Amino acid sequence: LKYVEWPGQEGMGADKSWLIGVLGDDPFAGALENAVAAKTINERKIAIHRGAQLEDLKGCHLVFLSQSEKSRAKRVLASLQGTAALTVGEFDSFAEQGGMINFTMASNRVRFEINLRAAQKAGLKINFKLLNLAKIVSP
User: Fold this and answer.
1) What is the dihedral of CA 3, 88, 60, 78, to 10 degrees?
2) 23: which strand partners?
3) Which of 63, 125, 126, 135 suits a disulfide with 5, CB 3.0-4.6 Å?
4) Under 8 Å CB-to-CB from 60, ≥6 apart: which residues?
């Protein structure tokens, strides 16, 4: 969230929380709440929402698709087109399917891929510091 700029972000008040949605099986087992507890980004709190259906996560700034959603990822990503939701996943070909950020493992280290075209299409601007650390993927 810290390294992404959303359309109209300057006009968002501090009273509105950043919303992170987890779609499908939750691989974090409560660790996500611990990671964001009492933290803010641009003076805005961070809230976690979980859902089995995309409709449960409407309005989220970031939507994480867990491994359990691999079979329906294309449909979910298509449904999110036209929104400014940052899509994040953790399975092969997520970025190639149109996901924006995909976490991968390489040499026992967590790496990530970024589909810059998908992010730009949603009106999101990813900070160059994050881009420099990522593998850029095009569908």
Assistant:
1) 130
2) 51, 65
3) 125
4) 19, 20, 21, 49, 85
**Nearest by Cα to 64 from 49, 74, 78, 44:** 49
The structure's pTM equals 0.91
Q: Show the tokens assigned to 116.
A: 């810059």
**pLDDT tens across the length of the chain (139 residues):** 999 999 877 656 556 889 999 999 888 777 888 888 889 988 889 999 999 999 999 999 999 999 999 999 999 999 999 899 999 999 999 999 999 999 998 889 989 999 999 999 999 999 999 999 999 987 6
Written as one letter, the residue type at 107 is S
Residue 73 has phi, psi (to 5 degrees) of: -60, -45
Q: Give the span between the Cα atoms of 4 and 134, in whole angstroms.
A: 14
